[in-house]
Amino acid sequence: MFIYKWPADKQNGTGVVSQHSECHAKGGGISSYAGNKGGAASSLEECMGKAMLEIPKSRHKLTPVYLGATAGMRLLHISKPKESDEVLKEVADKLKTYPFSFKGATILSGQEEGAYGWVTVNYLLENYIKYGFVGHWLSPGRDTVGALDFGGASTQITFETKQTVENKDNLMKLRLYGRDYQIYTQSFLCYGRDQVLFRLLALLMKTQGSDRSIVHPCYPAGYSDSVKLSSVFDTPCNERQTHYKPEDVLQIKGTGNYDQCLGNVSRLFSFKNCSYSRCSFDGVFQPNITGNFMAFSAFFYTHSFLQEATSMSITSQEHFEDAIHVVCNMSFQQMTTKFPGQESRLKDYCTVSAFVQVLLFNGYGFDFHSFPHISFLKKAGGTSVGWSLGYMLSLSNLLPAEDVLLRKSLRSGAWSALIVLFCFLLIVALYFLLRAIRKKDTGNVI
């Protein structure tokens, strides 16, 4: 949950929004409560209680509340539409019990999720609007920055392009701060972090011809695990086997082999059958990437782990690939020694890192020239980078601008500058006044 605030007036039709606070609900996303009646609603209580305390009571009825669901709910809607509707209704009914102005719960499309992430990135970088020296909001006229998002169930790429967007499904038009923007955006469902892990397990079972035990080249050597088949195939991203038994257990043994890992991860993509002038993968049109990009969510965590694990400053494609090679060839003992207390997460870093390598370089088309133009960030200016701020910025177009009782004051920096300028002018004025008086006195003596 994110709490945002903005002034009563607006700039060219869009509210100037800033993040007040955030709260992370315990447990999984609301889609994880499918079939668990009351679970999704209960998961909201702690964060909504925090909102009740942080938002002034006098503003409760005037505070709009929106719920946006993303890829996890998109997958649930595909596989179990009835349960998806039930979860969405349950959380909506729960939010209506609070004294805020509930505006609705909706499942965002993948293109919307990508576009809102792009809006957030460029807002935080002040590419739309920035506060000027004398207290006016100004349009800086800078180029926008592309957005790379990597969630649990999907991944998104969004950027402005001057090239023709051959598939109009990838074209979105936005109006923010009095300006129109045309962007390319694409969301790949089933290419999020969690779904990639499940898809790779299913692929290894298929290629090794076993649903009982497999060797996993992306898991570190010395690591072993067992999982129920239900956890692998209870997703529309994986096709269930003919003789699928949910309670059967799969034994997994890690071998820690970078080359074999990369080869298997690459098979999760399809680089054939493109009906456009250029495709990224799976037959999806994509223009050539241009300009700078910001990569956030799981992109940031993956990049951060690679740097910490290898003590490398990753600023080039070569550094990135070298770091992945090192991590994928580390034993589980080496990993746990370096990162004690993180055993449950360590096994997946090689898989995810190799996936990001294929996605960025083979899929999106980044190379040694363009990779240095990617910034991996979690926050910018104290605000979390993600789709939610962009969502609120866009929704604020629908909110009426309230009457402003007082004119917007200058920020402290602008006030300080004006005070210094005033003092300087006052000193100059006094100097010339004293000089004039002395001149007059001298004239009277003569």
From TrEMBL:
One Gene Ontology term from the biological process aspect of the record: nucleoside diphosphate catabolic process
Active-site feature positions: E113
The encoding gene: LOC113049313
Ranges annotated as spanning the membrane: 414-434
Gene Ontology CC annotations of this record: plasma membrane
Pfam family, one: GDA1_CD39
Keyword annotations of the record: ATP-binding, Hydrolase, Membrane, Nucleotide-binding, Transmembrane, Transmembrane helix
Protein name from the UniProt record: Ectonucleoside triphosphate diphosphohydrolase 2-like isoform X2
Family: Belongs to the GDA1/CD39 NTPase family.
GO terms of molecular function: ATP binding; GDP phosphatase activity; ribonucleoside triphosphate phosphatase activity; UDP phosphatase activity
